[in-house]
Amino acid sequence: MSSNNKAILILGCFDTKGEDFLFLRSCIVEHGEKVITMNTGVMETTINFPVDIESDVVALEAGYSIKALRESDDRGQAVSIMGRGAAKFAARLVAQNKIKAAIGMGGGGGTYIALSAMQEIPLSIPKLCLSTLAAKDLSRQMGSKDIVLMPSIVDVAGLNSISRLLIRRAAAAICAMSEVGEEKVSTAAGTIAISMFGNTSDCVNQCSDLLRKQGYEVLAFHANGVGGKTMESLIGEKCFDAVLDVTTTELADDLCGGICSAGPGRLNAAAGLGIPQVVVPGCLDMVNFAQPDTVPVQYQSRDLYNWAPDVTLMRTNKEENKILGERLAQKINRSPAPVKVLLPARGISQIDAPGGVFCRPEINRVLFDAIKENTKSSIEVIETDAHINDPEFSAMLVNALLSVMKKLQV
User: Fold this and answer.
1) Does 195 lie in the same domain as 138?
2) Which of 17, 19, 44, 166 is the most exposed place for a label (fewest CB within 10 A)?
3) What is the CATH number of the domain that holds 167?
4) pLDDT by residue (tens digit) across 370-385?
5) DSSP per residue over 257-314, as a string?
6) How many domains does the chain have?
7) How far apart are CA 143 and CA 89, in angstroms?
8) pLDDT of 41-62, one tens digit each?
């Protein structure tokens, strides 16, 4: 189906925001676009525009009747259920190749429902939400998706000179974005995902240069929690031919409650899908916190280093490294595809180099031994006398990645 035959999905609570959504719909139609409207409001509506997916079927998609939701008078439950139903419908519309973009509007509840639905819409389809909460931290609701948040300035509660202007702009933005197609990158070889951090940037840049010279497209993801989640999500969408996971530091933040945790799903996607990968315990010597006064009380006597005024790093200890080595091994053991692990004996981060503030070879030894002892025999674990940012280590990583990719092709 060509993009000309697809529609822009409009989703929101038409019961309380009907006037606003009528105006949004008219603005999009004026741009010559087709629309699919989804009502996620629970109460009865008096809107005078066509609704393609009514709230009763959205609720049923999540296993509830709209009548029961109205009678329960439980707003929190209703928002959760309508979010689940909207997400299922959005996934279906994507599978049916019916939508070219999605737009939502709302306050707290409407924003939650819209963002829930947008979680099921892939990278290739633009997503925009005009929200009263756009200035707040919505990272949990947005997840790893490429959603554009636009501040509504005034509440979405009836039209006025400001809301009309911003709704027109939101409509123009989503219509314009919907016409931007994916750029077809000509790569004879394939596409590689690679994880990086400031402490491993030399290694990643060197690997990327070597891979690009051989015709690969390389996409780098900052291992700051959101970056790791995004990489895992795109691996799950089968966007990559292989993964060079140089910077697995998010495992340490997940273990110790740091601010760069990507959650327990980190390092799962490639193994689950059988995508070849090379893994390095890059930056597992550190856990990330913000300003020094944000470091939890139980860690304030630990080895701390100010990487920046708003970044405080904590050196991981032997006990944590033993657990991290076991977890890393358990995750990659699930993979049916070829995997290699490379261990740089002279340091796993920029500041874990000889003479560096986090240089603790005896702690790294616990990590390396835990990885070796818990990795299944079919996975090759290579320890080499190099630092993670040494050019020779980068060359080893690229050669290892090419070898596991070749094994899968045989």
Assistant:
1) no
2) 44
3) 3.40.50.12020
4) 999 999 999 999 999 9
5) T-TT---TTTT-HHHHHT--EEE-BTTTTEEEESSGGGS-GGGTTS-EEEEETTEEEE
6) 2
7) 19
8) 999 887 889 999 999 999 999 9
